[in-house]
Amino acid sequence: MRQRSVTGSDEDPRVTELRLAVSRLRRELAGHPAEFPDRAIAEDELAALDAMASSGVPEIPRLRRSLLLIAGAVGSVSALTAGLTAVRSAVDLFGETPRQRSGD
């Protein structure tokens, strides 16, 4: 699934998309003038997503956990909706986490 990009890298396109989306939301968050209670959580989890993407193909459960924390932290800030949606779409490119059946 790896493709050579325009820059000549051999990075997984899903990872590239995740890195771009995370970068965008980090810029939008940094430029957002209002403080809100969970801003530090969003910044920490975006840094964690960036680190996971930089290290290669990240673990899907950890991606989803970070996404949930970020969404909870910035979900009520309408100015960040587009950036958050882009991060969610990028995480979704990695597929679903297998669910455990009840009783197993």
Kindly state the number of beta strands. 0
The low-pLDDT segments are 1-7
Give the termini separation. Answer: 32 Å
> Roughly how many Å is the radius of gyration?
15 Å
Please tell me what the overall shape is: globular
The helical percent reads 55-70%
Largest sheet: none
Percent of residues in beta strands? under 5%
Put simply, the count of helices is 4
Residue-averaged pLDDT: 86
Q: What structural category characterises the helix and strand content?
A: mainly alpha
What does this structure look like?
There is one protein chain. By secondary structure, the protein is mainly α. The chain is built from four helices and no strands. Helix 1 (about 15-30) packs antiparallel against helix 2 (about 40-55). The longest helix has 19 residues, at about 15-30. The N and C termini lie far apart (about 30 Å).
SSE topology:
Layout lengths: L12 H19 L7 H16 L5 H15 L6 H12 L12
Features:
globular; mainly alpha; 60% helix; disordered N terminus; single chain; 4 helices; 104 residues
In a nutshell, what does this entry contain?
This protein has 104 residues and is an all-alpha fold. 60% of the residues lie in helices and 0% in strands.
